[in-house]
Amino acid sequence: MAEMLDAVKAAKNKDGKCLILFPTDNSLVFDEIKEDMRSKAAHDIDDNNDEGWDVIVIDGTWSQARKMYAKYLKDDDSGGYLYRVQLSDTAVKVLNDIGSSSTSNDIIGSKSSGKGHQLRRHPIQWRAIATLEATRLLLDDMHTEGQFEEASKAMSHYQEIGNNSARTQLGPPRISNT
Q: Would 101 disulfide with which of 24, 44, 114, 143, CB 3.0-4.6 Å?
């Protein structure tokens, strides 16, 4: 907790760069954040270099995540180099493709593999995604030249392992009679 709060404080003081992966009214996609930092002209940011970013990802149900966000991060207005980040339109499209996919047996690491999406249902598609999958898609957004591809495949593989374990523990999905 102390490390997270230190990263937030450093970013607000322009001593570091920090992203909080949490969709809010003022959250931006990563490309918009890079453009904002360029406009501030405080850091020379290479389009393909995301080194030095602290990334905060809140893990839990949406109810738990909202409570943690409100308690620890909401009052810290974005300022300096502290940004609320959301997934890009490309990642949201991937989520919509995942939601309409009928299988999760696609190639590991495929951007539309269905991993991380099918275990939790929510009427808003992007809210049905697992934290690991959202993190993977954010890192894909941050690494547009393919330098994250191998790690992305590994994360997708671990998501599938977790999904299989959960399916074993939870049993088959319940079918609504309505």
A: 114
